[in-house]
Amino acid sequence: MNLRLNSEFGTLKAVLMHRPGKEIDRLTPYNKEYLLFEDVPYLDAMQKEHDFFTDLIKQTTGAQVFRLHELMIQVLSDEKLLFQLMRQALTKSGMTHLTEHIMGRLSTAECATALTAGVKVHELKRKIPNLSTGELMDYAFVIPPSPNLYFQRDPMAVTPGGIIFSSMKMDGRQREADLLRSIFENHPDFKENVNKLYPVNGHDNPPSIEGGDVIVLSKKAVAIGNSERTDEKAIYHVAKALLAEGTVERVYEVHLPQKRNYMHLDTVFTILDENLVLTYPDALNAVLQTSLYTLKEIKDDKVHIKREVLNVSLLTVLEKEIPYLEILHTADGNPDYAMREQWFDGANVFAIGPRRVISYNRNKHTNRALRNLGVEVLEIPSSELSRGLGGPRCMTMPLSRAKI
Ligand SMILES: NC(=O)NCCC[C@H](N)C(=O)O
Predict the structure, then answer these.
(1) What is the pLDDT of residues 23-66, one digit of tens each?
(2) What is the pTM of this model?
(3) Which end of the chain is more exposed for a tag (fewer CB within 10 A), N or C?
(4) Within 13 Å, how many C-alpha atoms sit on residue 94's CB side?
């Protein structure tokens, strides 16, 4: 599989998703904020909604849907890799000395679950009775959970020039990118086709960037949000790698307000066809500054790039890159409904083909506006999935699309 994508809307051929599991049941009213949830979801209903979403993708596109858990089990048969991930997962609780002990007692599938759902002291004690966990209380996490894993968009990004592995900003999501990177760099189906653009080798603690901030504007241009989650230093390194690779000629850094409902660039707009963009109306006014990176020269193996600050709005950038641009506002521009639907990611639809999208059923004003424009809208139930504050694009990691 050629792990490069030259559009946001070519007919979907392969996608990676994660069915929410036990990690969701770890959320409580007291840790939900730290773990970046607005509420405590009901897992059974959430799984039903997610299954509906996955089945819909398969039925309507015939795309191959990879599941994170299965890929994890496949790569974790490599003991060295499992050791590395398990040790890292135990760092926060200070229990790295338990790494081999845990690996010796749990099957590979159980280790995969432990790495995503986390493990509490009392659960481990059931498996390993004479465990020494020092000061840790029975209900403390030995391995913290990763409830945001169903937002597969964020731990990496596939661009026309290769893959960006994220460096997650928030404490509660930091291990997600390492899991994805372990899969893509080791799984036989993918590893030969990874052209890694980021992190740059030798960076121990790379500046943060999250996949939701990366949008392919065209075959030659990529936009990256400078946001609550993505640092300008990371954008500089990614721009350099992308421009040096040669497929992409322009990288835009789009400055977003540092607000929860603008957390990533894809919360603000999505591209539905060669000339159609869906956007939250306020965003076009709020985003007033962008920078443009282009290649200056490559001399003696050194890449030199140029950064120009453009005092132009997001709209101007979109108009420059997308010919005959048509903009559709969420909720057809009604400020009250647009605001309500923005909270539930109205602009964050998932394009499965040109003018063919999957959208939350709750965003009915936006869905109606899309249909009025001739876009095919396939709705998915959204009572529980939306509690993590991400939409259909956030929940998918497209790996292959028909070329545009
Ligand atoms: N691309 C996206 O906007 N992803 C949504 C991520 C939601 C998650 N609860 C977070 O705050 O990171």
Answers:
(1) 999 999 999 999 999 999 999 999 999 999 999 999 999 999 99
(2) 0.97
(3) N
(4) 6
Separation of CA 129 and ligand 1 centre (Å): 38
- pLDDT per residue over 336-353, tens digit each? 999 999 999 999 999 999
Q: Is the ipTM of this complex over 0.85?
A: yes
Per residue in 57-113, pLDDT (tens digit) is 999 999 999 999 999 999 999 999 999 999 999 999 999 999 999 999 999 999 999
- Residues having CB closer than 6 A to ligand 1 are 36, 148, 151, 153-154, 173, 212, 263-264, 266-267, 388-390, 394
Distance, CA 164 to ligand 1 centroid (Å)?
17
167, 263, 360: which to mutate for ligand 1, most atoms within 8 A of CB?
263
3-state secondary structure the chain: CCCCCCCCCCCEEEEEECCCCHHHHHCCCCCCCCCCCCCCCCHHHHHHHHHHHHHHHHHHHCCEEEEHHHHHHHHCCCHHHHHHHHHHHCCCCCCHHHHHHHHHHCCHHHHHHHHHHCEEHHHHHHHCCCCCCCCCCCCCEEECCCHHHHCCCCCEEEECCEEEECECCCHHHCCHHHHHHHHHHHCCCCHHHCCEEECCCCCCCCCCECHHHEEEEECCEEEEEECCCCCHHHHHHHHHHHHHHCCCCEEEEEECCCCHHHCCHHHCEEEEECCEEEECHHHHHHCCCEEEEEEEEEECCEEEEEEEEECCCHHHHHHHHCCCCEEEEHHHHCHHHHHHHHHCCCCCCEEEECCEEEEECCCHHHHHHHHHCCCEEEEECCCCHHHHCCCCCCCCEEEEECCC
How far is the centre of ligand 1, averaged over its atoms, from the C-alpha of 331 (Å)?
A: 21
394 is catalytic: yes
| Domains defined for the chain, CATH in brackets | 12-66+147-401 (3.75.10.10), 72-143 (no CATH)
> Which one is catalytic: 394, 395, 397, 399?
394
Q: Ligand 1 centre and the CA of 103: distance in Å?
A: 31
Share of the chain above pLDDT 90, in %: 89
